[in-house]
Amino acid sequence: MTGRMRAALALGAAVAAVVGGVALQLRAGPRAPGGGAIGGDVTGAWYCPHAGGEGWTSTVTVANPGSDPALVRITSLGPGGAEPGQLLTVPAGSEVTVEVPADRRAAGATVEYFGTWVAAGWTSTGEGEEERGVAAEPCQAEAGGLWFLPDGSTEEGQDAYVVVMNPFDTDSVFSLTLVTEDRRIRPKDWSGYVLPAHQVASFRLSGVALGERTVAGELEVSIGRVVTASVGIAEAGGIRAASGITGDPATAIHMPGGADAGRTAVVAMNPGRAGAAVRVALLGEAAGTGGGVPEEVIPPGSAGTYEVQGGDPVELLLSAEGDEGVAAVRRSSGALGDQGAAPGISVPHEAWVLIGHHAGSSEALPSAVFLANPGAEDVRVTLTPLLPAGAPAAGPIVVVVPAGSMVPAAEPGGLPLGSLLAVADDGTFIPVLVSSALNGSGYAMASGVPVPPRFIP
Amino acid sequence: MSQVRTHEPERPDHPSDEETRRLPSVLVVLVTRDGMGWLRGCLASLSRQTYPRLGIIAVDNGSTDGSRELLTRVLGEARVIQLDANRGFPGSVAAALGTRVASRADYLLLLHDDVLLDPDAVERLVEAAERVHGAGIVGPKVVEWEDPVVLREVGLSTDRFGYAYSPLEEGEIDHGQYDRLREVLFVSSCAMLVSRDAWGRIGPPDERLAERFDDLDYCWRARLAGFRVLVAPLARVRHRAATQRIERTDSEPWAGRGRYYSERAALAAMLKNYSLLSLLWIMPLYAIQSVGKVGGLIASRRFEDAAQVVRAWAWNLLRLPGTVRRRVRAQSVRAVPDRAVRRYMASAGLRLRRWLDVANQLLLGRAGARQEIDEEEETVPTAAVEPLRRRAVSVARDHPVGVAWALAVPVALLAFRSFIGPDPLSGGSLAAFPSSAGGFFRELASGVRTTGLGGTTAASPALGILGGLSWLAFGSPALSQKLLLVLLPALAGFTLYRSVNRRTGRPSAAVIAAACYALSGLALWGISEGRVESLVLLAALPPLGDRVALAFGPVGAPRRWRFAVGTGVLLAVAGAFAPGALLAFGLLLVAQLLVGGEGDRLRGLGLSLGGAAVAGVLLLPIVLEAAGTSGAALGTLVGEADFGLLARLSPTASPGGWAVSWFLPAAAVLGFAMAEGRSERPAVAHLLVGIAAPFLAWGSAAGYLPAGASNAPAYLAVAAVAYCSLIGLGLDSVLAGMGRHAFGLHQVAILVMVGLVAGGLGLQTIRAAAGDWAVGPDRLPPAWPVVVAEEPERSFRVVWIGEQGRGPLPAPAGDADGQVAAGPAWIRYAVRDRSGAVATDIGRRATGDGYAYVERVLQTVLTGEARHGGALLAPLGVRYVVAAEGALPGWALDRLGTQLDLDRIPAGGLVIFRNAAALPRASLVSDAGFRDAASADDLLLVAELRPTLVGELSPAPGGYSADVGTPSPRAGYVLLADQYAPGWRLRTGSGEEEPERAFGWAVGFPVESGGDLGVVYADQGSRTLATIGLAAVWLAALWVTRKPSRARSIRPGAPLESVDEPVLEAAP
Lengths: 457, 1068
Known about the structure:
The complex is a heterodimer of chains A (457) and B (1068). With 457 residues, chain A is mostly beta strands. Chain A has one helix at residues 3-28, and strands spanning 43-48, 56-64, 70-78, 81-82, 86-90, 94-100, 108-114, 119-127, 132-138, 146-149, 158-166, 172-179, 184-185, 193-195, 199-204, 216-223, 227-234, 239-243, 245-246, 252-255, 264-270, 276-283, 293-298, 302-308, 315-321, 327-333, 339-343, 351-354, 367-373, 379-388, 397-401, 405-408, 419-424, 430-437, 442-447, 449-450. In chain A, a hairpin with an 8-residue loop joins β30 and β31 (397-401). By secondary structure, chain B is of the alpha+beta class.
């Protein structure tokens, strides 16, 4: 081989290697995993900070919209720790309701499920002399590190609590800051608060910020995870609860509701660093009536309560200007003054489970369902009852929800007593379930639980 | 040595009778044994002595060749002491000293029978003894038997440890340069004049010491007693050294055992003659250097030499009482302190000074020498001094290896400065060494794997090597780990140097290639990450490549069987550390098959495969494991799919993998272009390998190759050898053809290559000297020790995870055990205990049903709908799931964060999830559905479990024992979170129970009743036998390939040292 041939060969080899390497790197790249096999075993947990009190009864309802039975373990938690869990099976397409201890404010429960996806919610019923009413919320699927609890008022006749639940194996440490319309309060005792594993704690807000129309809570976890809810108690009677809001605040929040006495307020808090201009609009037939809430500016780090003017039933759409958004709760009153509250929802879904409200393990409360369609197309929604085993069978209800409006799924009393699976044929929607009990003195409002796409029947 | 100033008297040719009577009498003690070949000459030389008062007594040590008869005939029966057996020289002298004639002699001349004396030798010796006050022993100048102008001995010295040194160069011609009376530490017993005073006080030589090795002790004792030991060079004798030449009929046993005799004599002499105070510091140092010496000899396969050192120690220990008795006697006549004797010993400082002198001469060069001469003449022409640059070039050209070492040492000191100190290393991918050398051997012999998820996969034979090295490092595995990381790159450079030098015969080219190799991206990556196995592979590959090339070469291997075994041993050593060495070997083989040597390909293939077969036998555990896993045991997940990085020989980002390291492939291409003549064919083979290897490495890292063929570091090691060999071959051709080519592209290419290599090496050196390694003292993430410290008592495992392409797993996880396809990503994982990656797992891959379970759980947790990851991991004993910050995609973190029973705990630098549900490695749990879950293949049942821990079984010899007393009233279940092996047994008060598979992979025992429990492994015996068998095979293979014993010699040719010579005053 001559020198020139060697040089040419060397050059050629080098060029070939470089070109080949670059081509491999850019064209082929590392072998993709091909998605990998999805683990087929389904387990999960719901966290239910249902609170309690003297004369209270709390139930946890688990609804199984799937076609396979689910094994469920319900574990009650209190300030003293966890009680042994009870295992039960939730048959396919039905619900199971279990009464859980609720003799103190710091009470909660964990629902673990195995085999298939289920939804869970809780209902707390106060039948004591001072605390009467109904509160209901879906249980929460996730614990978080930053919680917003807008719904609180310590005006005269109102009391407010934040219930914090640590269902995990590690102690959690958090700080609770109260946010009123013009100040932020971080009590020393609530800074670096250590909540041991498997325990629940409650914080009475009126002990720190008395006489405030709006006392929102902002809970920041430094170690561990917790789940929160706010509980409001009216001296005149009536209790309400709203799940804590975790995740990023939103700039567009839907708050459907109905079957109330016409008094509705929106409580919003702005956890951001800049002021947020919010306005609440009425959707559907009430749109254009001039109702809602005109633009209000919520200063950074503060909260406000805004009475909504308008008809009933009505869906509210809160819009916030700015990048950071707000956290908001709809608060409505029942016919006899009991209040209901539900956090707003920013994302409509294709399918929801609406957990039925129960005054006891066997006493379902009459309820109404309102379906809001914020989209631009009509949506056809099928509601399938998920009733307790042994309950009389009930057929599905089909409702067409016009675009940009909200409709009741049935006349009051027209729905079977229990949970419902609501599935849109095409499109998305937002449902809300309201119930009344105790001869009309109790009023509760709860959002639905979105069904993960994989588990939509 | 001191020069004794004497005043030579004028000597009359023939002394008168009166003068003769005044002369001291000398009795020659001639010791003979089968010396017919030279005894006549010796007797004749004695008969020609000019000294008048000379008597002779001979001691024959049972000669059978007629020597005895000759002595009787010449000297008469009365002058011959006939011993029935060979009592050695000291014993013979002792026999002679017991005679009456000896007691009357003024001097004894102890004489070997293979010595010829010049006629005036005795006269000169006596003269010296008489003239120097206090002379006890006088020795002559000893020259070669056949060639009397060649010096053999002019007095000897030792270092502090009794190792003898001669001031002579090998073959040094006698120009009279030593012809002055000098005082030395000792002289040879081949001809030794001893005064009556001396032997009267110190007695005879130590009869336990063998011939040739008794003189040091004897002279040392004389010195202790206050006598002087002199060399009188004017007295000259010729020495045949018949025993060394194995010319005596019974001298065979001496052959190849010189080290044994010299070692035992040195130790015995020290024990007898040093003061207690001196022994206190000498003996520990001596023991340390003996251990190092044994290690070095074993490492260089000089097993016989190593055994001789050990035997020498054993000999001294067994004869300690006799040594003590003789010590009492020697010390009883002590007249001088040790320091008076040490004046005649060589010191380490002297050795250093000698080296410096040599270096100085090298640097000064001939001009320096001229300058010295000119200084003497006081005419220093400064213009004559060569420029420093030219001198430096000259030195580098003439002594490339020495210059390379001289440069390497300070660089290494800088680079490894953080290794200095007692703190153990951590960080990178470093595998922790056990706390004692025994840890390696225990794991090697253990029937069950104590690491990872357990099981019965046998340990790699590498543990035997690591255990032995740790033992040699004074029993400190931490020290041996540091030494390995420091020395292996140097060894790699050395082996490549030898490889290139063998091919080219040009040390300068080989040195540059070796420097490129030792500073390649792969070598620096290996150091930085603490990858002993990769460094071993780097060190082993050049000789392996040589052997493959030799097998395919025109001549082939000289001794084929030994060649195949040698190749197998080398491959097995590399494969024991890095099983991927087998892949690298295969690549070398394929290249040779494609390119071909000048020889027979079939022969080359046969020899190479023979070597591979031997390696297969030596690596039987690894081979069996590879066979059981479709070869997966040969693969590794190490490496990033970044072609540019891999082409620069860095499997992952590391200090050596920066942009500068492109110089190596670039220079290799130039090297190929320049290689011509004899270098052309090997260059083609190297080019082929150099191109293929990075692609194979990329294919491995990117996941395109089968698991068993995926080993990026192994392929890159082959590429490193190819690159650097091409550089060496190219440089060789350039240097050989310098001046043959007219100026043109060739010279430009040379300049480019020189620039590339010089710049690249320089910058890589700077990078290395910066010492910015991932390993070092205290390099664990800050959070990890804190987490571990929180649970000091409990046994637990850790699953380390990270997405492929986001860097290696954090320390101390080591390399990933496997990977799972989780949604859009590959998630790599490793299962470790609190120690992290351990060196007892070197060469052993993570395989088995337990790992399949881990992958299933990870996939379920990361991609499925399960939120009970803690419960699923609980049977594995996994207490923590850990990732480096940024090593997981957001969705994976979210999935972990939503697990009900995995709690994230604060941790600087790490993402740590704690699993409170984790069971200990061996536990007794209540059986509320546990057995059902354990026996079913259903993760849902596992997720539901909330086992009540009754007690943890603690490790005990051969297994685990329960100190739980009586278990709960309900039936219990013993879970051993190790991969299933049928040899496990549960021992209860009622007998032994066989295990059942738990969770499809672990070991479980249903417990029906309470009482003491024990879990033991019953098949340990068979593993022990297998280990012994394998060790025997290794020893046999090493014995076949052993190097011949290299006996120490204190004669010319041995390490040369000069001894300080204090000036003595002559006797009046």
